[in-house]
Write the structure tokens for this entry.
Amino acid sequence: MLQYALRRIVHTIPVLFGVLVVTFALLYIAPGDPVLAMVGDRFDPATLDRLRAELHLDEPVWSQFYHYVTGLLQGDWGRSYMTRQPVLAGILDHFPKTLYLASVAMLFATLSGVLIGIASAVKQSTWIDSLGMTFAFLGISFPVYWVGLVLILVVAVSWELLPPSGFGGGALPYLILPALTLGMRSTAYIARLTRSSMLEIIRLDYIRTARAKGLAERTVIGKHALKAALIPVVTAIGLDFGAYLSGSVLTESIFAWPGIGRFALNAILDRDLPVIQGTVLFLAIVFVLVNLLVDLLYGYLDPRIRYERAGP
Amino acid sequence: MELWRALKRNRLAMVGAAVVALLVVFGIAGPWVAPYDPLAQDLSRGLEPPSAEHWFGTDTFGRDILSRVLYGARISLIVGVASQAIAFTLGVLLGVVSGYYGGKVDGLVMRLADVTLAFPTLLLLIAITAAFQPSLAVVFVAIGVVGWAGLARLVRSQALVVRELDFIQAARALGMGDARLLSRHVLPNCLAPAVIAVTLGMAGAILLEAALSFIGLGAQPPTPSWGSMISDGRDLLRAAPWISIFPGLAIGFVVLGFNLFGDGLRDAMDPRLRGRVRRALPRPE
């Protein structure tokens, strides 16, 4: 296990380096002069030159990249063109709200997805199965932001049950609709995965043995089958969670949720390049690290993986 | 032929195929079928609810939503086909070469794939499209370029298996050159997962384009993209929900079609690929 873990961790280093190159290139290839964007309409040429020198923009590319990376490591992620605030502070301010929303959404998706999946597998080819799988197919097909708008229209506007948008200091009523919306895709995906994984497991010999020795069906399904069936589901949950932390741009924008996705989107609409660059880098790092954790967890849960992947 | 027979037995796959066929028909014939000009404004008839005259109602500018949805089919079709053609070409070529030759080439290609997949898809696309002038062409090139990596991984793992097969070894022993061996024998045997991935990838590409257009980084007004139409109705949800509802239904319907068809195709071609293909695809949200 240790060898597998080390191998996997070492493997992330070139990936993170590649991520740095891409985010650096993003600012480099973007049209427009960053210095002009910083000084605004009124400036004198001397200021421009001074700023260029300060930002190392008059140096060759590799040197700029070096300063970019060393700056990042020292906590200097640049400043917003719009607010002049440090980018890293903005990121760290918004990220916890995204983490909160993503955790609740994932909790909801896991519970309901696994339940739907088990019910569909146990009652295979009945109306319960059809209903569950219809939902699963619809859930991965409809755009999340559209479902969010429909929920707002029905639940918040017509029935007036919940607030349509906003953070509300993190109060539960404000959380329900965004969490449902964000979690919908995962719910559907987890339901399908649990069902197919469960169907494979229930046909195995050890389950037949468990039934033959007279265990209650509930114990057979809940204890023996579920444990094995959930291994692939754990990976899916982990990967989706990683994606939620980084990709809730649409849901956050629909519900005016002040997380990092909305922070990134506003920066994009303002063409605030340092913020775009910083958030993309931060979220990619989070995504890579969560994927690493998922792989390690998977290797721990399923011994076959660590031997197979450690092979030549 | 055998594939078709297997597909025909799968009722859901046939439903999916019908939806895909419908998209192709409307994508091509939309302009002739549409009852109105999708760009023609009639401010005196703005925000009309669905009626016999305007089945899906009208938007703020009095434009007919049904006609706009029909035109939108063309955009979704173009984005789906163009982006997946790019992803397929890059992914299959790099995947086969990587799996067949192994060594340094393989290492380089797979590290590139790792970096591409290290970014959350939508975020990377947003960043790319924001760096350029927003347009539909940028969108489908970006979706294609981001989509190659998962495909390359899939094809590579297949190529690793194929290159060890006896008939490949035999052909090599008989003196067949690499180029011929690759194009004649290795490549055709690696295509099944790629074809399935591209079919499911269409669904993803349509969702991604709609998401980008919804944000304002895709098709520019007045082009009737489904995503930007949903965004048009966003602030009028209470007064005129139909503006957003119908394009959203169109997206869901078409994406569902590709998902059903793609899954059916996978079951007919190679059920062992279950789960692996979808994992290789970029997340569409």
The mean pLDDT of chain A is 87. The longest helix of chain A spans residues 87-122. Residues 161 and 168 of chain A are 15 Å apart (CA to CA). The two ends of chain A are 16 Å apart (CA to CA).
